[in-house]
Each structure stands twice: as structure tokens, then as C-alpha cells.
Amino acid sequence: MNIAIFDFDGTLYKKETFPLLMKHLKYHPIYKKRYRSFFAAVLLPYLAYKCKLYKEEKMKYNMMQSYVHAFKGLTIEEVNHFFKTLAEKMIPDINTTVKGRLEQHAKDGMEIYIVSGAFTPLIEYVTKDLPVSHIIATNIPFKNGVYHSTEPITHVQGITKCQLIKKALKGKQVQWSDSISYADSYSDIPILELVGKPICVHPDDALQIVAKQKGWEILD
User: Fold this and answer.
1) Are 149 and 72 in contact (CB under 8 A)?
2) What is the pLDDT of residue 147?
3) By residue range, what is the domain housing residue 145?
4) Which residues are registered as beta bridge partners of 199?
5) Burial class (CB in 10 A: 0-12, 13-18, 19+), 171
6) How confident is the model at residue 38 (pLDDT cuts 50, 70, 90)?
7) Phi, psi of 131, rounded to the nearest 5 degrees
């Protein structure tokens, strides 16, 4: 089988999701009171990161974990509805060029994998009308139908992305040399190097340098 892997933020989706998540919580008609405790929890780690005292990966994990704590006491249905209303606002900002590639790859018989650090239900709602085979994203822990606040998340970022892709494909005969990967960030190089046809979408400066050195396709 051949697969096509798509990063989400900055690739399939034009923007970054976390600023949207923050705004959605801050101004939410029901849950906006929860924003203050979230913001207080992430302020110091973020400032430490800006002062180069905190690694980026650790900072991002802290922000995602603090964000999901805002769901304390909420049911699966309530959390899903929270993400559904945000997803409806995000769909117009899907990258149409990348979306067209995704749909064509699916027509060609490729398995489509979305890999993202964003929360799984958000990615599911945004991509619900796309021919996606599998989503690898940050799951929200629930227990007895309610958010399980004592269970830590597994934030899908960095090398974890590659590990989870390989885990999802364990036992399957993947033709890696004929497979394709789309990403926008230098941190996603391990995903791009998994396949024979890496494609960089509006790459950041560091990735652009690597892409030009290696002769990878660049979508601007």
C-alpha cells in the first residue's frame, strides 16, 4: 500500500490552531470563565520559553495539558460540541491546493493519514468531509463519559509523530518509496524523510533551506 501523510497546522490548514483554541475558550458563551485559570497556568512556562529557559516541546505540552484541564467536569458530548463549533469556523481556511492533492491521492488509491498535535475531535470535525483513512492527533482522556483530569495527555509532536505513524502502520506492507508526505515545519523533517516523495508546504525558513538542498518539492 501507498500512503499520503498530511501535517495539519500550516499545511492542510492555513493557520495555527492553538491561538484559535485560546480565543474560542476566552470568548465562549458558556466556558469563558475557565479561561483565566488556563491562562494563569501557561503564563510562566511561556515566558520561560521566550527567555530560552524552557524547551519549545515542553512548553507546547504544558499549554495543551493546561488547556485540556479547562474541560474538568465536562462530558464527551459537551467537549465534542465545543470543538464542533470551532471546527465550523476553521473549515473555510483549509488550504485548497493541499486539499485538492489529498483528494487526488485518495482517488489514486492511497491511504490518507492526518498527523497533528491538535486535539483529535477538532481534527475529526474539520476533516469530516475529506477522504481521510486515519487521524493521529492528541487524544483527550475520558473516564465514564467525563473528562479524566488526572490522566496526562500524549501530545503528538516532534519524534512522537513518527513513532505513532509507524505504530498505526505496524503489520502493513507500506511502499515507503512511493508514499508522500506534506509538512511545513523543520520539526517535521522526520515525517518528510519517511517517504520517497516529501513535499514542503509554505515551509518555514529552516525547512526551506533543507528542501532546496535535498531537491524536495515546495508548494508556496
Assistant:
1) yes
2) 97
3) 3-219
4) 182, 217
5) exposed
6) very high
7) -80, 65
Beta-strand pair 197-201/180-183: parallel
- Burial profile 184-207: b = 16 or more Cβ within 10 angstroms, e = fewer: bbbbbbbbbebbebbbbbbbeeeb
Number of structural domains in the chain: 1
| Per-residue cell: 152 | 496526562
Distance CA 206, CA 165 (A): 23
Cα separation, 130 vs 138, in Å, equals 19
Three-state DSSP class for 115?
Answer: strand
Q: Give the HSE-up count for residue 39: Cα atoms under 13 Å, Cβ half-sphere.
A: 10
SS3 at position 49: helix
Determine the pLDDT at residue 158. Answer: 86
**Model pLDDT for residues 179-218, shown as the tens digit of each residue:** 999 999 999 999 999 999 999 999 999 999 999 999 999 9
Q: How many residues does the chain have?
A: 220
> Smallest Cα–Cα separation from 212: which of 187, 191, 186, 177?
186
pTM of this structure: 0.94
- CATH number of the domain where residue 59 is located: 3.40.50.1000
Going by pLDDT thresholds of 50, 70 and 90, the confidence category of residue 220 is confident
Kindly indicate the confidence band of residue 75, based on its pLDDT and cuts at 50, 70 and 90: very high
Exposure string for 127-161, b = 16+ CB within 10 A, e = fewer: beeeebeebbbbebeeeeeebeeeeebebbbbebb
Question: What percentage of the chain exceeds 90 in pLDDT?
Answer: 95
